[in-house]
Amino acid sequence: MAILVKLSSTVPFALTILSFFSIIAIIESKSFSRILPPSSLGLKREKLSHLHFYFHDIVVGKNPTAIRVAKAPTTNASSPFGAVVMIDDPLTINPDINSKLVGRAQGIYALASQTDFSLLMAYNFAFMEGKYNGSNLSVLGRNSVFSPVRELPVVGGSGVFRYARGYAEARTHSFDSKTGNAVVEYNVYVFHY
Ligand SMILES: *[C@@H]1O[C@H](CO)[C@@H](O)[C@H](O)[C@H]1NC(C)=O
Ligand SMILES: *[C@@H]1O[C@H](CO)[C@@H](O)[C@H](O)[C@H]1NC(C)=O
Ligand SMILES: *[C@@H]1O[C@H](CO)[C@@H](O)[C@H](O)[C@H]1NC(C)=O
């Protein structure tokens, strides 16, 4: 009995609190989204940039930059399907790995084809050169490594590359079939603000 009385006296109070919060919720929901003029974010003119560099995928060596982190039970040298590799590959201005470092490619590639050497690549270019220092581009695409030219979509970016869209062209510069180490020439074309 005492409990019932107590409950009934708290119900109107609870309702008042509830309606108070729902009024706040209505006010807040008005600002969930709004249309902005692009100039309010300082967006003026879209630019097209071309970046050129060399990507070093070091699988075997003193300091490997590409490390296999997983594989399928059936993955072997003649059937690499299912291997997953984590990379932190240096990007340099010239094919020589000791030339100027302009960034790193950080992410994952996986052997995604049962019939050829095609990779699913998902990685970020983290740049450290000039005005691009601290800005990143995100790449997601298919890389059929023995094709002369591969095209991978650039799906976004940060810093100077906000709103980026474009593509990366990859061409093998050198490949050591014994180790799997590769130097890949990249030409990246991106629109950004
Ligand atoms: C590699 O794996 C494939 C598919 O699982 C199998 O058919 C083949 O015999 C294996 N090769 C070797 C050398 O183990
Ligand atoms: C890039 O930016 C970082 C952090 O601001 C700075 O320490 C570094 O010296 C810069 N590198 C180049 C090459 O400008
Ligand atoms: C780009 O990536 C680096 C890490 O590699 C991060 O420190 C930096 O904040 C990113 N830049 C932007 C503009 O988000």
Automatic annotation (TrEMBL):
Dirigent proteins impart stereoselectivity on the phenoxy radical-coupling reaction, yielding optically active lignans from two molecules of coniferyl alcohol in the biosynthesis of lignans, flavonolignans, and alkaloids and thus plays a central role in plant secondary metabolism. One of its GO terms (biological process) is phenylpropanoid biosynthetic process. Keywords: Apoplast, Membrane, Secreted, Transmembrane, Transmembrane helix. The chain crosses the membrane at residues 6-27. GO terms for cellular component: apoplast. Homodimer. It is found in: Secreted, Extracellular space, Apoplast. The keyword Membrane applies. Signal peptide: none annotated. This is Dirigent protein. InterPro entries: Allene_oxi_cyc_Dirigent (IPR044859), Dirigent (IPR004265). Belongs to the plant dirigent protein family.
